[in-house]
Design goal:
- This protein has strands spanning 4-5, 13-14, 22-24, 32-40, 46-54, 58-70, 76-87, 92-98, 105-118.
- The chain is mainly beta.
- It has one domain (4-118): Immunoglobulin-like (Sandwich).
- The strands form two sheets. Strands 1, 2, 6, 7 and 9 form a five-stranded antiparallel β-sheet that branches.
């Protein structure tokens, strides 16, 4: 049986910073740790790249990420999505969210995931 977890509290709002890792650890992140940074090469499109580390005894499957792009007024102007299919206990998966536009701030959220079978880390 698979459990689906909704984790809206795993959000992080930041002003864009070039090539600096952003680490956010909240009490709600007892299952995993998320690290991400904004990647921009010259005048080309921006992307959010990061990783998720699984600290739980269960495999994480279908981890879905959402990046919301906010304008100066804090309104959502666009969004991007990415999925990591499988992260074993103690493992790490990488993600990349290609951004359709740049913004004043970004919100990166793990908004859904499934637990797989329990394993030894």
């Amino acid at each position: 049986m698979r459990l689906i977890g909704l984790v809206p509290a795993l959000s992080l709002m930041l002003a864009p910073l070039d090539a600096q890792a952003q680490v956010h650890i909240a009490s709600e992140e007892r299952f995993f740790r998320i690290e991400w940074q904004l990647e921009r090469a010259g005048g080309r499109d921006a992307a959010i790249v990061g990783s998720l580390t699984n600290h739980y005894l269960y495999r994480l499957q279908q981890v879905q990420f959402q990046a919301q792009i906010l304008d100066e007024a804090g309104q959502i102007s666009d969004e991007a999505f990415a999925t990591i299919n499988d992260i074993p206990p103690g493992g790490r998966g990488n993600f990349r969210l290609q951004l359709p536009v740049t913004g004043a701030r970004y919100v990166v959220t793990v908004y859904a995931f499934e637990f797989g079978p329990r394993e030894s880390p």
